[in-house]
Write a structure and sequence with these properties.
It contains 6 helices and 7 strands; from the N terminus they run E-H-E-H-E-H-E-H-E-H-E-H-E. The chain has 229 residues and is an alpha/beta fold. It has a single domain (8-228), classed as 3-Layer(aba) Sandwich (Rossmann fold). Helix 6 (205-217) links the parallel strand 6 (174-178) and strand 7 (222-223). It is globular and about 50 Å long. The two termini are 23 Å apart. The relative contact order is 0.16. Bound molecules: NADP nicotinamide-adenine-dinucleotide phosphate. GO terms for molecular function: oxidoreductase activity. It comes from Arthrobacter terrae. Keywords: Oxidoreductase.
Length: 229
């Protein structure tokens, strides 16, 4: 079992629908959190809600190389971390012919490049027994038409997680790839480009967050979409 009480965890994308639900669950378990997000206002509101459990907050744009470095530096200030949950991300919709370069770049930067850069910067700070959690998505298992670039960005993250799991095992660092189905956070109503398809009702964000925190505590090695059924 991974001890969550008094563990210091970095949550990136803490201000998002899933990120904030994960933060609340972790605080219920007694964890101490460093919160990373883009909006300072949202970070301040979340920190105020979570109270003394918050070690630090860091606002950074993860789409440029300095962002992950700044987040890792903030997490270092308390003498290393017991884990990181990467829950930042963006989505876009539409056929390939309508995919513009800025959208493609941002999808890859947020969903794949930033977590790679972040983990590279965090390596010296991860204590033995630490856990690295990546929020990929069901589309890494079942890529969808009209979401090709998003699906590919998540497949890349899932592939990276698998390789890192093997690479970091000797250092006793566990990498947990999480591939949730559609969840009611409003993400699909905020695409960086394109028009959302009819997705139907998604899973409850608190239930998804609860399952993720359960997997962290229970030392699970993989959390496929079927784990949320
Ligand atoms: N919701 C779903 O159906 C679903 C299903 C499977 C997987 N996922 C994945 O789960 C993750 C979280 O999704 P969500 O539904 O919680 O989305 P969300 O509510 O939109 O949250 C996204 C988070 O990413 C942050 N972010 C976006 N652009 C950023 C940037 N340039 N720099 C720094 N931070 C940035 C946002 O910060 P601000 O709040 O400051 O903007 C926010 O904290 C994503 O990777 C998503 O692909 C979601």
């Amino acid at each position: 079992m991974t001890q969550l009480r008094d563990a210091h965890l970095l949550v990136v994308g803490a201000t998002g629908g899933l990120g904030s639900a994960i933060c609340r669950r972790l605080v219920d378990e007694g964890s101490r959190l460093t919160l990373a997000g883009r909006s300072e206002t949202k970070l301040a509101a979340l920190a105020s809600e979570l109270g003394e459990a918050v070690v630090a907050t860091i606002s950074a744009d993860l789409s440029n190389p300095a962002g992950p470095v700044a987040v890792a530096a903030a997490a270092a200030e308390d003498g290393g971390i017991d884990g990181v949950i990467y829950a930042a991300g963006v989505v876009a919709f539409g056929p390939l012919g309508e995919l513009d370069d800025d959208t493609f770049d941002e999808l890859l930067l947020l969903n794949f490049v930033a977590p790679v850069r972040l983990l590279r910067s965090l390596l010296p700070q991860l204590k033995p027994g630490a856990v690295v959690v990546h929020l990929s998505a069901v589309v890494a298992e079942k890529p969808m038409k009209g979401m090709a670039a998003y699906s590919a960005s998540k497949s890349a993250l899932t592939g990276f997680s698998a390789a890192m799991g093997a690479e970091l095992r000797r250092q006793k660092i566990r990498v947990l790839d999480v591939r949730p189905p559609h969840t009611q956070t409003g993400l699909h109503t905020r695409p960086i480009s394109g028009v959302p398809p009819q997705l139907g009702r998604g899973l409850d964000a608190d239930i998804v967050a609860g399952r993720i925190v359960e997997a962290i505590a229970a030392d699970e090695a993989d959390l496929p979409a079927s784990a949320f059924a």
